[in-house]
Design brief:
The complex is a heterodimer of chains A (about 100) and B (about 525).
Chain A (H helix, E strand, L loop, with lengths): L5 H10 L6 H18 L34 H5 L5 E2 L2 E2 L11
Antiparallel strand pairs in A: 1-2
Chain B lengths: L9 H10 L4 H19 L2 E4 L1 H21 L1 H5 L8 E5 L26 H9 L2 E6 L33 H8 L5 E6 L5 H7 L2 E4 L19 E6 L2 H11 L25 H6 L5 E5 L9 H16 L3 E5 L7 H16 L19 H12 L2 H14 L4 H24 L4 E5 L15 H5 L6 H5 L4 E9 L2 E8 L5 H14 L24 H11 L1
Parallel strand pairs in B: 2-3, 2-4, 7-8, 7-9
Antiparallel strand pairs in B: 1-3, 4-6, 5-6, 5-10, 9-11, 10-11
Helix pairs in contact in B: 2-3, 8-17, 11-13, 11-14
Classes of the chains: A mainly alpha (about 100), B alpha/beta (about 525).
Chain lengths: ~100, ~525
């Protein structure tokens, strides 16, 4: 668990889809490493035989009846879309223009 | 009798609505006036909805008038929250209204539907005064991470109200509403309740449906009430708790009607304590704790003992690992939850020339999220990334098991509830914890293990330290909210005669000054002087 280098910080920022200024990245590098040092404390504990906990109230899967119920009208669902055409949301192209 | 209706408790308002001494409209107007007058100085509200609140109040008055015609039985059957003003943290969806979660990325967004808890409150005729300020996406312990400015604590306008539900807590402390709702992922209800001198409960995970609430960390988030005393808080919890098919994590566990009938008499409330066993977890009295806060907690323990309870030293040996565990699990879940803010379907959207969708994401999220949200999304993305998933995320989930076992073992040994500080300090000044994120994270050291274990916890006022409120935290086994409220009510009975019980927040009157500094200006002045 070595510290984060500047290029690690940039890589994680890209994975997280966060555009950041150089000043923000500078600040984050120091702050994230300081926080990661706190994580090291967990290495003190031997947890090989301990099962992980993902949720705390032991609810089993809850199934509902397979019955259609009313949902929100399309106008309500789409009302917040920044770009629309009729009942469609305009999304940015993901397949690279002319090359298709 | 105090002529100002904002000084009443919710149930006192309810009683006067039934006798006809006041109306829901008069209550709404008095509270709206107070909120509007003081929001310049406090910034507790992001929206004050005068028109909507008055419409709901008039509807409540019509119900009251009908019941009065139908006789005492009909009046008695009315819900205790009918016509009572309530504040909602601005991550709770109210159809047609804003729901920013304190973030620029949701500015302009209009909620297309009501949250489950909003439906429930509408059904009983509560009046929504508006939406309260909060740390962005509920990430913070001081409300200073709100994109819409910090909130002042009515006890000292240069200090924070706590967070993330800082606006909800300050609004109740300032008598803008008798009741409000917040959310608690690592302490975001209990810590601000403590710092503002009011009651705040985080219920058991699964107790309240989160349908219609902006998600932060889904294995930890829970909704809960703020009020100025235990009985009012219990009544609000009763109104919103229970199974809802639209939140598959909401549990089919009965919600006890006794929540509406906590003892009225102090003697009866205190008598409940006889023979109860409380545990005092030694790990919650940490180095660096404010010694005066520690004194208030020990004095509170002495009151419980005098009333016939036993208080035993107990150990929760993995407490010290809570912070690291929490700051892996919560950011990991947040990084996944916040992936939805893509600028495509709703919220802030930046579309750059050239049609590179990755560049659009980077621009939208880079501009829309504030510094703390970016920090946590970075931490979470890193903890979940290839090569670190086992070392960080799985490791943290295993330690989470150990933290939960600590609590399970203490309760299995016969302890009814734990008594602990809510916060190791009273409210701190603006900027005091802004330069070092870890110092801010430590604000929740005494509350976040409770979320890790999914347990209920309540913070109740237990005195002052140099004029600032101190909170006592009571923690119980899963689904023990009623017992915690009984204990809280008993503590109120024990301290009913204490001077601090009847004090107004020390600087509340100063918040009337519409020409004075805003919280943001106070924070800037303090930063300049530092």
């Amino acid at each position: 668990m070595a510290g984060l280098s500047r290029s690690d910080v940039e890589h994680v920022a890209h994975l997280a889809r966060l555009g950041m200024t150089t000043a923000e990245l500078d600040r984050l590098e120091g702050q994230l490493n300081h926080i990661l040092e706190q994580y090291m404390k967990l290495a003190e504990l031997d947890t090989d035989a301990i099962p992980p906990t993902a949720q705390t109230i032991e609810l089993e899967n809850i199934l509902r009846d397979d019955v259609a119920t009313p949902s929100l009208p399309a106008s309500a669902v789409l009302g917040n879309a920044p770009a629309r055409e009729g009942d469609f949301v305009i999304v940015p192209p993901i397949l690279g223009g002319d090359a298709g | 009798m105090n002529a100002d209706p904002t000084r009443l408790l919710a149930r006192e308002m309810a009683a006067r609505l039934r006798t006809g001494e006041t109306t829901a409209r008069a209550l709404a107007e008095a509270h709206l006036d107070a909120a509007e007058r003081q929001n310049h100085a406090l910034n507790a509200w992001l929206v004050i909805d005068r028109d909507g609140a008055l419409r709901q109040a008039d509807a409540a008055d019509a119900v009251l008038a009908g019941a009065r015609r139908d006789g005492p039985g009909a009046l008695a059957a009315l819900h205790p929250l009918l016509g009572i003003p309530v504040g909602l943290k601005d991550l709770i969806s109210v159809e047609g209204g804003q729901c920013t979660a304190g973030s620029r990325i949701l500015e302009g967004y209009r909620a297309p539907y009501d949250a489950h808890i909003v439906e429930r409150l509408r059904d009983v005729g509560a009046v929504f005064l508006g939406k309260t300020n909060m740390d962005e996406f509920a990430m913070g312990s001081s409300n200073e991470y709100s994109a819409f400015g910090p909130v002042s604590n009515p006890w000292d306008l240069d200090t924070v109200p706590g967070g993330s539900s800082g606006g909800s807590a300050a609004a109740v402390a300032a008598h803008h509403v008798p009741l409000s709702l917040g959310t608690d992922t690592g302490g975001s209800i209990r810590q601000p309740a403590s710092l503002c001198g009011i009651v705040g409960m985080k219920p058991t995970y699964g107790r309240v449906s989160r349908y219609g609430i902006v998600a932060f960390a889904s294995s930890l988030d829970q909704i809960g009430p703020f009020a100025r005393d235990a009985r009012d808080a219990a009544a609000l919890l009763h109104a919103v708790a229970g199974r809802d098919a639209r939140d598959s994590t909401s549990a089919p566990v009965p919600v006890e009607d006794e929540l509406l009938h906590l003892p009225e008499s102090d003697d009866e409330a205190v008598a409940w304590l006889r023979g109860r066993r409380f545990g005092l977890p030694r790990e919650y009295f940490v180095a660096g704790m404010d010694p005066d806060v520690e004194r208030r907690i020990h004095e509170s323990v002495a009151f419980l003992v005098d009333a016939g309870a036993t208080v035993e030293d107990v150990s929760l040996p993995h407490t010290d690992y809570g912070l690291a565990t929490y700051y892996i699990v919560a950011p990991a879940e947040a990084s996944a939850n916040l992936a939805r803010y893509d600028g495509v379907r709703y919220g802030l959207s930046r579309r750059l020339e050239g049609g590179d969708f990755i560049a659009d994401y980077l621009a939208t999220r880079g501009e829309g999220f504030g510094a703390e949200v970016k920090r946590r999304v970075m931490l979470g993305t890193y903890a979940l990334s290839a090569g670190y998933y086992d070392a960080f995320y799985v490791k943290a989930q295993k330690v989470r098991t150990l933290i939960k076992r600590d609590f399970d073992e203490v309760f299995a040994s016969g302890i009814d509830a734990l008594v602990a500080p809510t916060s190791a300090s009273v409210a701190f000044r603006f900027g005091a914890r802004m330069t070092d994120p870890v110092s801010m994270y430590l604000s929740d050291a005494c509350t976040l293990p409770v979320n890790m274990a999914g347990l209920p916890g309540v913070s109740i006022p237990c005195g002052l330290s140099e004029g600032m409120p101190v909170g006592l935290q009571l923690i119980g086994p899963a689904w023990s909210e009623l017992m915690l409220f009984r204990a809280a009510r008993a503590f109120e009975g024990l301290t009913a005669a204490a001077t601090w019980r009847n004090l107004e927040p020390a600087q509340l009157a100063e918040a009337d000054d519409a020409a004075g500094p805003t919280p943001a200006e106070r924070a800037a002045a303090l930063a300049a002087a530092r």
